[in-house]
Design goal:
Layout: H1 6-12, H2 23-37, E1 45-46, H3 49-56, H4 60-72, E2 76-79, E3 83-86, H5 106-109, E4 116-117, H6 127-135, H7 138-147, H8 157-167, E5 172-176, H9 179-190, E6 196-201, H10 205-212, E7 217-224, E8 227-228, H11 230-240, E9 244-247, H12 261-269, E10 277-281, E11 302-307, E12 319-323, H13 325-336, H14 344-353, H15 357-382, E13 387-388, E14 396-400, H16 406-415, E15 418-419, E16 432-436, H17 441-460
Parallel strand pairs: 4-15, 6-7, 6-9, 9-10, 10-11
Antiparallel strand pairs: 1-3, 2-3, 5-12, 7-8, 11-12, 13-14, 14-16
GO molecular function: transaminase activity
Protein name: PLP-dependent aminotransferase family protein
Keywords: Aminotransferase, DNA-binding, Pyridoxal phosphate, Transcription, Transcription regulation, Transferase
């Protein structure tokens, strides 16, 4: 029997339901959505009404009304002394063991049910993407279709050569459908159930998803303004003997920290002293506000993950894994089980975009700090009790909230039309949230103004009637 904890359910509910209407109905529709997806499986026991009401900052009568509506719809059954559980014949499609209610892809299923999306830290596309894509001629397509049979597990040879030369090293390249697929391949190819994996605290939520699917046991190491605490990591290498260590040295999601040169050197030296695989996710490297190395170097147990999603456009779905040839060959075999390769057309566009990579980085380096200052100015004006550490990369700000939990903030924010991620989904304590700063200024301002109203509610907890149609 699956017993869903209050913390689990409150995180799963982020981004579900509808943004308007009576509060009990918003909650019931969110729960019904989770049941439909199979994320709340048949037989799962839901939290008690009172506990869920406290976590969601609503009255117990609201939760009771939501549960009753689900019962009337045949989705749950309620018995005195046994609580509320999902009915065994409730509609579902996929085993909940294959899903996590707060996984990184949740907000992309149907989009956040809010007018302002603070959940997604995606950057707008650069104009060069459309220019390059439109430049392909019929002859270019003929060259692709007549030269290649269309199946390249490792990727388009000319693109792999272009990326390898860009790094200036001899390591091999495996092209992937974005950095998320790269992480999944690393997890499937390098880990077995029970293996210990060390990640930063906090860390990229997509990495947590990928490693969790392998049955690995996660251990965290602290992160500060200089990056990963290498001394703390070495102690864990001795006591935990991990199979894999995952870092983001060139730009950290969600904090925006860039690891210092000294810590980079000390980190890579550990590879010669301890037996573990080091995975460096450089997806944010192209968004660094100052020049930063794109890799930690080369080593037979170092894998570098790269991506064009942040620099150019997320819709390219173009990433890669750089590593020793034998390791890349193994990961390509793993990839072949479910995917025979990415689109050659998209890879040809990506190959040509590499000719504009430095210009794209320069453009991001010019615009991102300006957009950051806009957000911090709005926070200082409307949420002066919030605190943060200035990021050195990325498109979002890691904000410490002054009162309550980020899960409470996210639930209340949704009632004001703002979709917000709680810090707990990044494996961190639930007192932070991530706010993107690349949205249009007016959208950003409206979102922060609405969050200032949330701050009042977190402190004051007014009645549900005041929250129905804020």
């Amino acid at each position: 029997m699956d017993r869903i904890t209050t913390d689990q359910l409150t995180r799963m509910l982020v981004g579900t339901g509808t943004p308007t209407g009576p509060l009990y109905r918003r909650l019931s529709e969110g729960l019904a959505e989770l049941i439909d997806r199979g994320e709340l499986p048949p037989g799962a026991v839901l939290p008690p009404e009172r506990a869920l009401a406290v976590a969601l900052t609503m009255s117990r009568t609201t939760v009771v009304a939501a549960y009753q509506e689900l019962q009337a719809g045949g989705l749950v059954e309620r018995r005195r002394g046994s609580g509320t559980r999902v009915r065994t014949h409730a509609r579902h499609t996929v085993s909940s063991r294959e899903l996590a209610g707060d996984h990184a892809a949740s907000q992309f299923l149907d989009g956040p049910p809010a007018t302002i999306d603070f959940m997604t830290a995606a950057l707008p596309s650069l104009g060069i993407v459309a220019d390059v894509a439109a430049s392909l001629t019929r002859d270019d397509y003929l060259q692709l279709t007549t030269t290649h049979h269309g199946y390249h597990l490792k990727g388009l040879p000319s693109l792999r050569e272009r990326i390898a030369s860009w790094y200036g090293g001899s390591d091999d390249i495996l092209i992937t459908a974005g950095a998320q697929q790269a992480l999944e391949l690393v997890g499937r190819g390098c880990l077995q159930p029970g293996d210990r994996v060390i990640v930063e605290d906090p860390t990229y939520r997509g990495a947590l998803d990928a490693f969790a699917r392998t049955g690995s046991r996660l251990c965290t190491v602290a992160l500060d303004s200089a990056g990963l605490d290498v001394d703390a990591l070495e102690k864990l290498l001795v006591t935990e003997a991990p199979r894999l260590v995952y870092v983001q040295a060139s730009g950290h999601n969600p904090t925006g920290v860039v690891m210092t040169a000294d810590r980079r050197r000390r980190l890579t030296r550990l590879l010669d002293r301890y037996d573990f695989i080091l995975v460096d996710d450089t997806s944010l490297a192209g968004t660094a506000f100052a020049p930063t190395p794109s890799t930690l170097g080369t080593h037979e147990r170092l894998l570098t993950i790269g991506s064009l999603s942040k620099v150019f456009w997320g819709g390219l779905r173009l990433g890669w894994i750089r590593g020793a040839p034998q390791t890349v060959a193994r990961l390509a075999q793993v990839r072949g089980i479910s995917d025979l390769g990415s689109s050659l057309v998209a890879q040809e566009v990506a190959r040509r975009l590499f000719d504009h990579y430095e210009d794209a980085v320069a453009e991001r380096r010019t615009t991102l700090p300006v957009q950051l200052r806009t957000l911090t100015g709005l926070l200082q004006q409307h949420l002066p009790d919030c605190t943060w550490q200035e990021p050195a990369a990325g498109a979002s700000l890691w904000v410490r909230l002054p009162h309550g939990t980020a899960t409470q903030w996210s639930q209340l924010a949704q009632r004001y039309g703002v979709a917000l991620l709680p810090g707990a989904v990044f494996g961190s304590s639930d007192d932070h949230t991530r706010i993107p700063f690349t949205l249009p200024v007016e959208t950003l301002r409206a979102g922060i103004e609405r969050l200032s109203r949330v701050a009042t509610e977190v402190v004051g907890y007014p009645t549900d009637a005041a929250r129905v149609n804020p």
